[in-house]
Amino acid sequence: xxxxxxxGINPLDYLNDVFTRLPAATxxxxxxxxxxxxxxxGRSS
Length: 45
Hints:
By secondary structure, the chain is mainly α. 49% of the residues lie in helices and 0% in strands. The protein has one domain (2-40). It contains 3 helices and no strands. The two termini are 16 Å apart.
């Protein structure tokens, strides 16, 4: 959660999105779920 705050991400938005998409993700896609990458990919609201 501290990483979310450092990147200006609402932790609840982040967790809702990640927990929704993570089950279908492959091992090679896991890096996309790190808060710094998540915000780069336009996932922040």
